[in-house]
Amino acid sequence: MTTSSQTDTDWPKAQEIVDHVLELRPWLRVQQAAAERQRRIPQESIDRLDAAGVFGLTMPKRFGGADFTTRELHDIFRALGSGCGATAWMVWAAAGGNLWSFAFDEDAVAPVYEAPWVGNRTFAVGGTSRRMAGTARQVDGGWMIKGAWPFATGSVHASHGYLAVFYDETDDTKTGMVLVPKDALVARDDWDAMGMAATGSQTMATDGELFVPDGHFSTPKRLTERLAELTARGEGPRRGGLARSLVTGAGVALGMADHAMEVFLGAVEKRSIPYSPYVKQVDAPIAHLTVGRAHTQVRAAAAVADAAVAQLDRLDAEETDPSDRDTLQLHTDVAYIWDACSSAVETLFRASGASAIAKRQPLQLIARNCRAGSLHAAHGIDTWTENIGRALCGVEAHASAGVLERTS
């Protein structure tokens, strides 16, 4: 159990966490089907992951969290993704929620991290529109919030949530985040998806209006200011913000692609191709082309990821934040990685024949999880290639933005 007294010296090294995750990989793979049926990560998996240290990856250092480089985080998420893509996604998404902890004063955040807890401490729901956020109105001593927040990944296992709210009925730039104990919210248990079903990404809602004290309300502008203050004192997270979170999360896609390739190659000498002259699939040239194409897609995606990781770690070492253009390119790189990995996994799945559609076969689940991850708005290949294309052509656009990216 991590406590606020834990120091850098007794936190596991990143490679030790990778090693623990690889030891857990057989367990995570066996649990994938059960996790999908339960639509959440089984509690025993949460217990084992917690013991391995994965829920402290992005906790504030002053509360005992790790201080890993982008490279180290990316490698941990890739290892997790090669065990269970949905589990890796949940851990990654919950890790991103910790960034908002830096936007609040110590007395508001301390109870989140100092109470005994197994699993992720927080979840965060941003969104790009009022449909995906709540509303807030100011009252004496705080705010009255209400609404429903869909896709609250990590909410099943968390103790607190960060929820996006609009606090001006006429201005969509007026957004904030409120810190709320999960037990003050209603869990709708409505997450039933074709992929990433095990992430428990349910809707969280208020029952009418809920009072939130002033100290539990913040804004993206305040987050930016607090990050600058804490970074200057050596207490903040590493630089990169949302772009860094997305780049590290691309390791989840690569991990799933690694697993898919392992599954396919493990069966290629046993599988035949009916109605063809090949007794074994391994003897068919089309199998060689399939493996070569998928391998090359994943290798290219990994090379893009490596370049993005190296850029962020270099900027961090130089104490420089990514520019707006850097961030746009990094977003596009991440979309490319997810698209390439999901395409490679789909290629391997299609080449595995009709037997691969059985729920007992892992490749169908890997394919569905990877495709679902690639469809997330932050990973949409068409959106982000258009965005970078507009920038290259010098065409300005007023794109929608999540709460993390607003400046109010």
How is the secondary structure organized here?
Layout: H1 14-38, H2 43-52, H3 70-81, H4 85-97, H5 106-114, E1 122-125, E2 134-139, E3 142-146, E4 148-152, E5 160-166, E6 175-181, E7 186-187, E8 202-205, E9 210-213, E10 217-218, H6 220-232, H7 241-267, H8 285-317, H9 324-350, H10 362-374, H11 381-393
Parallel strand pairs: 1-5, 2-5
Antiparallel strand pairs: 2-3, 3-9, 4-8, 5-6, 6-10, 7-8
Helix pairs in contact: 1-2, 1-3, 3-4, 3-7, 4-7, 7-8, 7-9, 7-10, 8-9, 9-10, 9-11
Structure description:
This protein is 48% helix and 11% strand. Helix 9 (324-350) runs antiparallel to helix 10 (362-374). The chain is globular, with a radius of gyration of 22 Å. It is built from 11 helices and 10 strands. The strands form 2 sheets. Strands 1, 2, 3, 5, 6, 9 and 10 form a 7-stranded mixed sheet that branches. The protein has helices at 14-38, 43-52, 70-81, 85-97, 106-114, 220-232, 241-267, 285-317, 324-350, 362-374, 381-393; strands spanning 122-125, 134-139, 142-146, 148-152, 160-166, 175-181, 186-187, 202-205, 210-213, 217-218. With 408 residues, the protein is α+β, with helices and mostly antiparallel strands. Strand 2 (134-139) and strand 3 form a beta hairpin.
